[in-house]
Structures are given as structure tokens and as C-alpha cells.
Write a structure and sequence with these properties.
The protein is mainly β. It contains two helices and 23 strands.
Amino acid sequence: MKNILIVLFLFIISYIFSQSPDNSNDVMNNYKITATFGDSRGDHFHTGIDLGASEENIKSIIDSELIFFKKERSRSLNYGLGNFVILENSQKKLRINYSHLKDDSFNSDNIYYNKQDKIAVVGNSGHSTGEHLHLEIEDIENKKIVNPINFLSIKDNLAPRIEDVYFITKENEKVSLLKSNKIKRGGKIFIKCMDRIDNSNYFVCPYKIILIIDGKEKVNMVFDYLKKGENSYTLSNIGYKFEELYLNKEDFDYFLMDFHSLPDLIGLKIIVEDFAGNKVEFKKPIRVLPPDNNS
């Protein structure tokens, strides 16, 4: 009986630790994701990820060397990234920006950093509403800003949420497909959806949105990188600019595609997925009406 209790105790302890994030190899030991890559910033994409924390040491996520740093002057206006450090790996392929650092927590005499070496302490410098690290990663070779989520040790068991799937006609009429199964021939398909990670109360941008019509994939939108153009960024493989994706100028409200069809019954399916593979689906048959038919 005693041996059974010992085995049961060890199993419980093992399970508890398996459900806890392993931060030993992460950028910080304790943090909450407060904003994700690709979020709307009013008129531009959020090009990094925000990690809320207090008095936590920030650690290098790869072997790298210092190429630039900025310290705010005393009595200066809080602007932009505040105190920040830019490190680059030896192959000169990745450039990592650690921003909003605590005043005087960074030693500029340190040039080379091994993975997990301390860089600075999380802070609230610059244009910031609370202590957090803005982590941004540039793929120099391919001219991309990549999603830092894949460089972090995060566990998440919560599926994203779909609040609405809707159709806007050429006459600018909004039809919620959660409430109706009829649309007119031509217009635009949108989705309002968001994600929430286990240890955070903040709603954030999902990682992937897939639109399928009559069994054929029409949209596969992945928030994995932003492609750098001359004057703007475009989202990964889909190529949407900010003003195209956030056409309705609302948070967590995404334009999917222009839709035109002859009168018919179509099968509409949307899959929203987070970085951990948790999914939620919307699936419904939709009747495409002929012109001037409101029945």
C-alpha cells in the first residue's frame, strides 16, 4: 500500500510540472503575453510580441553580439522603444530587439552574449503603459519580421474564440452568418476572432485562420512573419497590407476575401488556430441569393 501511495504521489508531482511552462530556456522566468505579433496598432501592424513582467531578468534567446543600444536621457520625453538593445547572431541572419528596458539595467560594455545570458531587466521606459518587454526579431537575409512566439517556451490549452463571421454586401449591408444563412451574390467575408493564452487575461491575435468554401481552401492566413516592402509590411503568404487586413479598423476583426457567386447553396467552414495547435471551427451551409431576392 505504501509503495502505491509513493507511486501515486510521484505521478501527481510529475503531472503538475508537466502542465507548468518550462521557463529555464526562455527569455524571462515569469511573464504574461499581453499583445501578439500582427495585432492592430491603429495604423500599423504590431511587429513583435509584448511580455508583461516585473523586475524579471531578460535573457538572450540565442548566441549573439551587441550591434546597437539606446539609453533614454534623464528628463527626456517617453518616446518609442525607450531603452533598447539590438543583438545579432554570428551568421548575421537574425537581429533581435529587446525594448522598454529598465533604466540603468543594461551594461553596454558587454558585447557578446551566449544563449540565456542576462541582458537587462524588464522595465517601463519609452512609450509604454506598464512594465513589459517588447521582443522583435528580424530575419535579415529574407527581409522579414518573424513572429517571436516560436522562440518562447509557452504552454497553452485554451482554444481561440470566434465572435462573429459576417458578410458585407456591395451596398455596405452587414449580415452576421452566426444569425443568418443567406447572403447576396457579391461582397466581402470577415471574421471577428481572438485568442487567450492560459496564464493571461489579455485577448490576443490568433496564429492562423483558414477559410474553406465547398471543400476548397480559399484563404490560409498565418501570422508567422511580415514581409518588408519599400513603405509597408505585408502579412506572410497571403500578402495583405495592414489597411487590407484591418479593413474595418476594429481590433480582432479580419478581412478574409472578396466573394462572388451565382445563386447556390455553398458550404462555408472557417478554422481558427493558435500557436499551440488549439482550434475552433465555424461551419454552416449558406444560401447565395439571386439579385433583388430578400426571401
